[in-house]
Amino acid sequence: MKNIIFVAPPAAGKGTQCELLVNKYGYHHLSTGDLLRNVDPSTEVGKKVHEVMSSGGLVDDELVFSLIKEHLLTLDYHKGVLFDGAIRTLKQVELYDQLCVDLNMDRGHVIFINISEERAMARSLGRLGCSSCGKIYHKVNMKPEVEGICDVCGGTLVSRDDDNEITFKNRFNTYLEKVEPVLDYYRNRNELITVEAMDNKMDTFAQIEEVLNND
Ligand code: ADP
Fold first, then answer.
1. What's the chain's Rg over C-alpha atoms?
2. Residues in contact with 133: Cβ distance below 8 Å, sequence separation at least 6, in sequence order
3. Distance 85 CA to ligand 1 centre (A)
4. pTM for the whole thing?
5. Would the CB of 13 count as within 6 Å of ligand 1?
6. Which of 128, 133, 65 lies closest to 99 in space, CA to CA?
7. Is the distance from CB of 108 to CB of 2 less than 8 angstroms?
8. 28 Cβ contact partners less than 8 Å away, ≥ 6 residues apart
9. Helix 14-25 crosses helix 201-213 at what angle (to 10 degrees)?
């Protein structure tokens, strides 16, 4: 399976689509947001990382890529990796290309999940995640069977620190400033595949599967 790089505004549903792809096809899932949230906040580096994340900015490119590389080396990465949010600046485009050369890895597909700012904000503010297994829910659109409890593992559902209105707006502005040039870069090279963030996650998933079936 080829790698897939997901590029999208915050809360467009990258994590949800990755979960569906992992369950159906067995990809590895590498979410830079998850890797960064797991950095120990009691260290000097961790403190800085958590500060940047809660302000809605972007963590240093080299630091993100050193974490990506470290994590990839623990995986059987030739079997196909979903890069969820890994490329958010033009510098990261370069670092990813270099990583592919270093690890002899195919670059794979670049999929953009398109969503308006209003809908992304509604998703962000209603998002819940399982504190134990990470499964994603939404207070209105993807409710668990029992309120506050994960259907899969029984863990407690929590909101992310950066899913509040002020941080969301900053994350969206960061997206416009830093990530849109990445989209233009891949678009100009005819390498950008666009799918739409639909109300039903399976409708977006079907669009992604169409890409995979055309391989
Ligand atoms: P979202 O895409 O919904 O904002 P993520 O969980 O993917 O959520 O990312 C959360 C935060 O982690 C981002 O707002 C940013 O601060 C940081 N982050 C994630 N990926 C990167 C990256 N590739 N480069 C820099 N910072 C990143």
1. 17
2. 150, 152, 153, 155
3. 6
4. 0.94
5. no
6. 65
7. yes
8. 22, 75, 76, 77, 79, 80, 81, 82
9. 60
Instruction: Write out the chain's pLDDT in tens, 215 residues.
Output: 999 999 999 999 999 999 999 999 999 999 999 999 999 999 999 999 999 999 999 999 999 999 999 999 999 999 999 999 999 999 999 999 999 999 999 999 999 999 999 999 999 999 999 999 999 999 999 999 999 999 999 999 999 999 999 999 999 999 999 999 999 999 999 999 999 999 999 999 999 999 999 87
> Alpha-carbon distance 47 to 54, whole Å?
11
Q: Which atom of ligand 1 is nearest to the CA of 60?
A: 25
**Pocket lining: 10 vs ligand 1, CB cutoff 6 Å:** yes
**CATH numbers and ranges of domains, the chain:** 4-115+166-213 (3.40.50.300), 127-162 (no CATH)
